[in-house]
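Students often ask why inverse folding is considered easier than folding. One informal answer: many sequences map to the same fold, so there is more than one right answer. In these notes we will look at a single instance of the problem. The structure comes first.
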C-alpha cells in the first residue's frame, strides 16, 4: 500500500516537466496514478469483503517504535475507490478544462496529484500520528489548489480562510489524538477501536477535540462557512475536494471512530444535533443562491451534515446507510460540479438569471446533470434513492433521539429536492424574458468524466446488492442490536421509508414552487453570516496582536536580551535555592595543571579589560582573545577537535565584528550619564547570567551518577574503522542533532542577511569611478544576486557597484592605470580598488595562502574519521580563505573568488544532508543509518569510505554558504552602500561647486 502513496508523490514531482513537454495532455498520463489506486482497490474488493484486512507496516525508527502503519479494511477500501476513481476522472477532465497557455498548470497538476496521494495515506493510515500528518498535508495542498490564481483577492482570501479553519481544527484534533493515545496506551488506530479505553473525563475531552477537527474538515456547522468560499478554486478542485476527498476526511474519521466511541458522552448528541442543523441550514441557504457553483457548495454542506448524522449515530443500520451514502454522494456531487464547469466554459457565466435554453442546446450535458440531480434528490432507480431509503429505515427503528433526527432528515431531504430542481431549472430551463444562450463547443474530455460518474450512480442503484457484502462488513464493526440485519436493496416494498421519501419529494416540490417568497423571507431573517463573523474575528485578532506587539516589542535588543536573561536567572535561581543541589556533591577541582590555571586567569583578565574598553574595535578584539584563550584551554585539556573549531569560529566571528563595526561609531558614548547606568545594568546581568551558567555547568558535571562512558566511545567507533570519536559522534551517533542544528544555522543566516538586503529592491545599481579609466572607457560588470542584476546603463568611466555572484569580473586595461597604484595585480579584481585602499603585501599574501587554505579545508573534511577535523571546521576554514580574498581585494575580488550564489551552497548542503538521511532509511532501514564501503584501488590501495563523509560534505557546503552569505551581506553590501554615499557626497560637492561658479 505504501507504494501507492509514493507513486502519487513521485508523479507529483514529475508533473511540472510532464506539463512542460506534453501540455494539458499530461493530465491524461497523471490520471493513471489515481486510477491505479482505484484498480488496486477493485482487485482486492472480494478479499476485503470476505473479512480479510490488508496490513502494511514500515518501521521508520524501530528503537522509538515509530513507523508507518497502513491498514485497508472495508471502510478504507471504499474511500480508496472513491478517492482514486473520482481523482482519475477529474484528472481527465483537467485535460479539457485548462488551456495550454494557462499559467502555473504544471504546479496545479503536481499539487492535485500530491493531494490525491495524501488522501490515500489518510484513509489507509493505522497510526494516529501518520493520520494527522496526512490530514495536515491535505489542508496544505487544498490551500495551494484553492489559491491557484493568486492574482485574485477572492482566491487568496478563500485559500487563507480554508487553511486557517482546517489547520486550527487539526491542531485541536492533534491534542485529542495525544490524549486518546495516552488513554489507550497505543496510537495504533485499529487497536484503539478494537479495545477502546474506559469512559471518563479524559476520554470525553479527547473525543470532543477529535470531533472539532473532523467537523472543521467536513464543514459542519458552525464551521461550514469556509466551504462556499472555496468555490473560488477551479472547477476540478471543487469537484474533487468537495465530492471525493477533503470534506470526506472528517466524515471518514467519524465513521472510523464511531464503532468504539458512539456511546461515550457527548459523541452521539454532538453529531446528531450538529449534523441535523448543518443539513437544514445548508439546504435552506442553497435556495437563496444564484451562482450554480455556490448553490452546489451549500448543497454539499447540507449533504455533509446528513453524512455526519448517519455515520456518527453509532448503530449498525445507520452505519450501513452512511457508507452507501458516502459513495452515492461522490457519484452525484462530482458530475454536478463538473457540469457547472462545462456550462461556465461554454457560456462564460454561472448565474441562474443569465442562463436560459441550455437544455435544448446541450442535451447530453443536461441528461448527465439530470441523472446526477435525481440521485441527489433520492429518486429511483438511482443509488441515492437506495441510500436514503436505508437511512430512513435505520432512523425509523431507533430511539427518541433518532426519531428527532429522522424528522430533520425528512425536512432536509425536502430542501435537497427543492434546490436540486432549482439547480436543473436554473442551469438548463428556459426563462421568460431571458435570451437563450448559444454555448461554445466543448471536447469529450469535459463530458466523459461527469457522464461516467452519473452512469455509475444509475447502474449501482439496481446493483446495490453487489455493494452490500463490502459495506455490511464495515457495519458489522458496530454492536449487534439483535434481530434481522438490514440489507441494501433498491426496492423494499411499500413501507414507512418509501412514504417518508414521497413526503420529502412533495415537500421539496412545494418549496421549489414557493422559491421567491421563501428567498425573500430568508434574506429578512438572515442575521449572521459565518463568513462575515470570521472576517471580523480575524480582524479583531490582528488588531489585538498589533496592540500587544506594540506594547511588548519596542525594538530594543538589549531589552529583549535582558528580559530573557532575567527570566533565566530568576527561575533557575529560585529552583537552585529551593533544591540546593550543591549539598550532594564533593569539593570542586579547580584546575588540572598550572598552565590551565595561567590561561584561565589570563582569559578572565582579558574579559575584564573587554568590559572596561571604551573603543568598540578594542572590545571586539579583546572578546576574540577570550575565545582564543578558551581554545587554548581545550588544547591543554586534550580536545584538539574542540580547539580547532573554537579557533575557526573566533576568527570568523572577529571578521564579522570588524565588518559590522565599520558602520558604528568608534567609541562607546561613555560620557553620557544614561550610558553609564546602562553599562552598570549590563554588567550586573552579564555577571549574573555568566555565573549561573558556570554554576549549572559544574553542577551538571558533578551530579553524575553513572560512570562516564567516554572510555567506551573509542570501542564503539572502532568497529566502523574510525578513530575520531568527536567527529563520529557528530555525524553518526548524533546525526539528527547535527542535521537540525545545520538547518537552524541556514535559516538564521538567511534571516540575518535578508535584513541587510531588505531595502535593496528600491535602489538602483551604483556606478563607481574606475581608477585610471578615461572618458568612453567604461567597464561594466554583470551578475545576479538577491535583488537583481547589474545596471543596464552604467556611465562611462565607472564600475557598477552591484555585487557579483555568477559572472567573472571584467577588469579595466592595465596599461592606463594610475601612476600611484602598482601596475602588477596579484588578485583578479584588486585593480578595482582605489589606490589608497590597496596593500601590495596583503594582496601577495592573499594570493599565496588562498589555495593552501582551501586545500587545508578539504584535508580537514576528509581526514575527520581518524584525525581532528570535520565538515563544520573545514567549512569555516574554507570561509576564512574567502574572507582573506575579500579583505585583500574588496567585494569584486570576493565575487571572482566565489562565482556561485550562497543560497545554492546552502540548499546543496541541506540537500546532501537530507539525501544521506533518506539513503540510510532506504538502504539501512532507519533514517541516517551509517554505511561504509571498503575497496582496493590500483594507486591508492585500500580505501575506506563511510556515509558519514558524505554527511560531513553537506555540513561543509552549508557552513561555507553561511560564511559566504555573511561576507556578501555584511561586507559587499555595506561596501556598496558606503560607495554610494561617497558617490552621492561627491556629486553634491560637484553640484555645489558648479552653483558657486555660476554665481
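Output (designed amino acids):
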Amino acid at each position: 500500500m505504501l507504494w501507492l502513496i509514493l507513486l502519487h508523490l513521485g508523479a507529483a514531482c514529475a508533473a511540472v516537466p510532464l506539463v512542460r513537454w506534453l501540455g494539458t495532455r499530461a493530465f491524461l498520463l497523471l490520471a493513471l496514478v489515481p486510477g491505479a489506486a482505484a484498480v488496486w482497490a477493485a482487485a482486492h474488493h472480494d478479499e476485503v469483503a470476505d473479512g480479510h484486512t490488508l496490513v502494511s507496516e514500515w518501521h521508520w525508527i524501530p528503537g522509538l517504535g515509530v513507523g508507518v502503519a497502513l491498514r485497508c479494511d472495508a471502510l478504507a477500501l471504499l474511500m480508496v475507490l472513491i478517492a482514486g476513481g473520482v481523482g482519475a476522472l477529474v484528472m481527465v477532465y483537467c485535460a479539457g478544462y485548462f488551456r495550454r497557455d494557462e499559467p502555473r498548470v504544471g504546479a496545479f497538476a503536481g499539487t492535485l496529484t500530491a493531494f490525491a496521494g495524501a488522501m490515500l495515506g489518510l484513509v489507509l493510515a493505522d497510526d494516529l500520528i501518520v493520520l494527522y500528518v496526512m490530514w495536515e498535508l491535505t489542508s496544505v495542498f487544498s490551500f495551494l489548489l484553492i489559491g491557484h490564481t493568486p492574482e485574485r483577492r477572492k482566491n487568496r482570501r478563500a485559500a487563507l480562510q480554508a487553511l486557517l479553519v482546517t489547520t486550527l481544527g487539526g491542531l485541536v484534533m492533534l491534542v485529542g489524538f495525544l490524549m486518546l493515545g495516552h488513554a489507550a496506551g497505543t496510537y495504533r488506530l485499529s487497536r484503539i477501536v478494537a479495545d477502546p479505553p474506559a469512559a471518563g473525563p479524559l476520554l470525553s475531552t479527547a473525543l470532543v477535540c477529535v470531533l472539532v477537527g473532523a467537523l472543521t474538515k467536513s464543514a459542519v456547522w458552525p464551521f461550514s462557512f469556509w466551504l462556499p468560499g472555496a468555490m473560488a478554486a477551479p472547477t476540478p478542485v471543487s469537484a474533487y475536494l468537495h465530492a471525493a476527498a477533503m470534506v470526506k476526511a472528517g466524515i471518514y474519521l467519524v465513521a472510523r471512530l464511531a464503532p468504539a466511541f458512539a456511546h461515550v458522552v457527548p459523541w452521539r448528541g454532538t453529531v446528531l444535533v450538529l449534523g441535523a442543523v448543518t443539513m437544514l441550514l445548508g439546504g435552506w441557504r442553497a435556495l437563496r443562491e444564484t451562482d450554480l457553483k455556490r448553490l452546489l457548495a451549500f448543497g454539499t454542506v447540507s449533504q455533509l451534515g446528513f453524512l455526519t448524522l448517519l455515520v456518527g449515530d453509532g448503530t449498525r443500520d445507520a452505519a450501513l446507510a452512511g457508507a452507501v451514502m458516502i459513495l452515492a454522494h461522490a457519484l452525484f456531487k462530482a458530475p454536478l460540479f463538473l457540469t457547472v464547469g462545462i456550462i461556465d466554459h461554454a457560456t462564460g457565466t454561472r448565474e441562474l438569471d443569465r442562463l436560459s435554453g441550455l437544455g435544448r442546446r446541450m442535451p447530453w450535458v443536461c441528461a448527465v446533470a439530470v441523472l446526477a440531480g435525481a440521485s441527489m434528490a433520492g429518486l429511483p432507480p438511482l443509488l441515492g434513492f437506495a441510500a436514503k431509503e436505508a437511512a430512513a429505515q435505520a432512523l425509523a427503528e431507533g430511539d427518541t433521539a433518532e426519531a428527532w433526527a429522522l424528522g430533520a432528515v425528512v425536512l432536509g431531504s425536502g430542501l435537497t429536492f427543492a434546490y436540486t430542481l432549482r439547480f436543473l431549472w436554473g442551469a438548463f430551463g428556459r426563462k421568460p424574458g431571458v435570451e437563450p444562450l448559444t454555448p461554445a463547443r466543448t471536447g469529450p474530455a469535459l463530458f466523459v468524466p461527469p457522464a461516467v460518474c452519473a452512469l455509475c450512480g444509475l447502474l449501482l442503484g439496481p446493483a446495490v446488492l453487489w455493494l452490500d457484502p463490502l459495506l455490511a462488513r464495515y457495519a458489522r464493526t458496530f454492536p449487534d442490536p439483535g434481530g434481522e440485519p438490514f440489507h441494501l436493496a433498491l426496492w423494499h416494498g411499500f413501507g414507512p421509508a418509501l412514504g417518508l421519501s414521497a413526503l420529502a419529494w412533495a415537500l421539496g416540490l412545494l418549496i421549489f414552487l414557493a422559491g421567491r417568497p421563501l428567498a425573500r423571507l430568508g434574506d429578512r431573517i438572515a442575521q449572521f453570516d459565518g463568513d462575515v463573523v470570521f472576517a471580523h474575528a480575524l480582524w479583531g485578532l490582528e488588531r489585538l496582536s498589533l496592540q500587544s506587539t506594540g506594547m511588548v516589542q519596542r525594538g530594543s535588543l538589549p531589552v529583549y536580551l535582558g528580559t530573557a536573561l532575567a527570566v533565566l536567572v530568576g527561575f533557575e535561581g529560585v529552583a537552585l535555592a529551593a533544591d540546593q543541589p550543591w549539598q550532594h556533591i564533593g569539593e570542586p577541582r579547580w584546575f588540572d595543571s598550572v598552565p590551565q590555571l595561567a590561561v584561565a586567569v589570563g582569559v578572565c583578565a582579558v574579559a575584564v579589560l573587554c568590559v572596561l574598553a571604551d573603543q568598540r574595535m578594542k572590545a571586539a578584539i579583546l572578546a576574540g582573545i577570550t575565545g582564543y584563550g578558551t581554545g587554548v584551554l581545550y588544547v591543554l585539556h586534550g580536545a584538539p577537535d574542540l580547539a580547532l573549531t573554537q579557533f575557526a569560529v573566533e576568527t570568523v566571528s572577529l571578521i564579522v565584528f570588524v565588518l559590522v563595526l565599520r558602520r558604528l561609531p568608534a567609541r562607546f558614548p561613555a560620557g553620557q550619564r544614561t550610558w553609564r547606568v546602562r553599562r552598570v545594568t549590563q554588567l550586573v546581568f552579564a555577571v549574573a547570567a555568566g555565573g549561573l551558567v558556570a554554576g549549572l555547568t559544574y553542577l551538571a558535571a558533578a551530579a553524575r551518577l553513572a560512570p562516564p562512558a567516554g572510555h567506551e566511545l573509542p570501542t564503539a567507533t572502532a568497529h566502523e574503522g574510525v578513530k575520531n570519536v568527536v567527529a563520529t559522534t557528530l555525524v553518526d551517533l548524533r546525526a539528527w542533532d547535527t542535521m537540525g542544528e545545520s538547518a537552524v544555522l541556514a535559516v538564521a543566516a538567511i534571516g540575518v542577511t535578508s535584513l541587510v538586503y531588505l531595502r535593496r529592491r528600491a535602489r538602483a545599481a551604483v556606478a563607481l569611478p574606475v581608477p585610471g579609466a578615461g572618458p568612453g572607457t567604461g567597464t561594466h560588470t554583470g551578475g545576479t544576486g538577491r535583488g537583481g542584476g547589474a545596471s543596464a546603463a552604467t556611465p562611462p568611466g565607472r564600475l557598477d557597484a552591484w555585487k557579483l555572484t555568477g559572472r567573472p569580473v571584467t577588469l579595466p586595461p592595465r596599461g592606463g592605470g594610475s601612476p600611484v597604484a602598482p601596475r602588477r595585480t596579484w588578485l583578479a579584481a584588486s585593480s578595482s580598488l582605489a589606490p589608497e585602499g590597496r596593500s601590495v603585501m596583503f594582496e601577495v599574501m592573499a594570493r599565496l595562502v588562498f589555495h593552501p587554505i582551501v586545500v587545508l579545508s578539504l584535508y580537514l573534511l576528509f581526514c575527520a574519521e581518524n584525525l581532528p577535523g570535520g565538515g563544520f571546521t573545514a567549512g569555516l576554514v574554507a570561509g576564512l580563505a574567502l574572507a582573506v580574498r575579500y579583505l585583500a581585494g574588496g567585494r569584486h575580488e570576493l565575487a571572482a573568488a566565489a562565482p556561485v550564489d550562497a543560497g545554492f551552497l546552502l540548499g546543496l548542503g541541506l540537500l546532501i544532508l537530507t539525501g544521506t538521511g533518506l539513503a540510510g532509511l532506504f538502504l539501512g532501514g532507519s533514517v541516517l543509518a551509517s554505511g561504509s564501503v571498503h575497496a582496493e584501488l590500483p594507486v591508492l590501495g585500500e580505501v575506506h569510505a563511510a556515509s558519514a563523509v558524505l554527511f560531513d560534505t553537506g555540513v561543509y557546503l552549508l557552513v561555507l554558504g553561511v560564511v559566504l552569505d555573511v561576507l556578501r551581506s555584511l561586507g559587499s553590501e555595506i561596501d556598496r552602500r558606503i560607495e554610494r554615499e561617497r558617490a552621492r557626497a561627491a556629486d553634491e560637492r560637484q553640484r555645489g561647486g558648479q552653483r558657486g561658479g555660476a554665481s
